[in-house]
Amino acid sequence: MIYQIYPRSFRDANGDGDGDLEGITAELASIRELGVDAIWLSPFYPSPQQDGGYDVSDFRDVDPMFGSLDDFDALIARADELRLRVIVDLVPNHCSSEHGLFRAALAAGPGSTEREVFIFRDGRGEGGELPPNNWQSHFGGSAWTRIDEADGRAGQWCLHLFDSSQPDFNWRSPVVQEEFEQTLRFWLDRGVAGFRVDVAHSLVKHPDLPDWGGRADGGDSDGYPGHEAPMFGQPELHDIYRRWNALLREYDGERVLCAEASISPVERLAEWVRPDQMQQAFNFAFLGAEWEPESLRSVIETSLRGFDAVDAPTTWVLSNHDVVRHATRFGYPDGGRPDGTRRGDGIGPNDIQPDARRGQMLARAAAMLMLALPGGVYLYQGEELGLPDHTGLPEAARQDPTFRRTSAERLGRDGCRIPLPWTQHGPSVGFNDTGASWLPHPVGWGGYARSVQHADPCSTLSLYRAALVQRKGLSLGSGSLSWYDGLNDDVVAFVNRDVLVLLNLGTDDVTLPELAVILDSVDVTGSTSGASHTLVPDQCVWLRYEPTSQ
Fold first, then answer.
1. Are strands 491-496 and 534-535 parallel, antiparallel or unpaired?
2. Does the active-site annotation cover 250?
């Protein structure tokens, strides 16, 4: 069970408005109390913060915004005391344009070995005025930017699959391979348990850099299946991760590589988690599934079958720092956005607003469903509080590069990155003691505060704590799944070990089997669950199951 921390929004110890490592260290006990085994830290490295820290200017240091290497060592020491493992983000596809290697490449000029560290190409057209191909950035606009050479004339084009301030590395360069092997060792030597590898599917590009008519993110579209995208999933990637796997095995104890890889279908994603490569890969098919019975059954079945085939654990996740929080998504039909666009594009005050009550109820039920599945689970900070997105965030406060590069057509991900509420009242609802905050809090944010929910036995926090205790005690993570028949088609029903899990996604009440209730998404305390034996819409229950029960 791994808990994702977005450092800038977790807790601010020095009051400057930005979360920091000292704030994380101070609250590790509250995270351990939740029942998780490890934390994953999103980037805390030196960065100009053009893309939330994923534009790294030094992979082997801490940004002063977050503290120092001494602060990081103190965090590791405290985590060790609490028996919490620490996984850190690794961003190997690109760096910041302020990174020393990129500055050297600009200074060295065309044809130099320094430029081979990145992907520079001459432009098309008579004067090289057109980009080398038609690739588009994930954040909107062309994936190529033309640079000015040292003598002032228009020069080559540089590839950036993300923001123009994030040049892509050329992973055919031995300099790049050595740079990241040193980075892995640097953080392993400081005690980390492994790495979440950002856009792990995009490091190597097709050597011919052919045009691509499909989606910029490599997702499937008509006539352009994602597996043909020339910037993703190239076969040379497997050799890179085999070398990294061998490097991690040099260190004592279990170490993990987890791929953030948007690869479809699931069977192809499973190729990344063979014994000599990654240990885990994020299951984005589950995160992106429509919350209707047939789709859910299909993605769960396909995921388990695909990962079981390579003897690897399936992972489950509902939210992260790149998508609209699921408590908000579930306020729309089928758990999507009001207009059906990408889940990372944000929701603003001019959009249709979600049904907040239904979103909260289904979010609790979805968490229980996920926590009953066999495999690994990732939680995103604040989901245990039932946090929604900030859907009223003013445009003047937005910082995501997607918002800037698309001229506000896509709002970006700021809404899911609002700093956490720790207390109901006070400056910045307990995020710090000064009231400063890099993103503004929505009205009523203090009502979700950890201090409020900790004392409420029916709160979302109490539900997560209870579910995590039961998940561990019942060994559901290492169990298996079999579908349960006999209820109507609107109920997702399965058995894992001695637990029958029922989720009602229909519009009518459903009569429950006469079995003891272990946990109920509506009534955490169990004060009424056993009496009614009725499953209402958007409710999930765990029941004590015996093979003779069906």
1. unpaired
2. yes
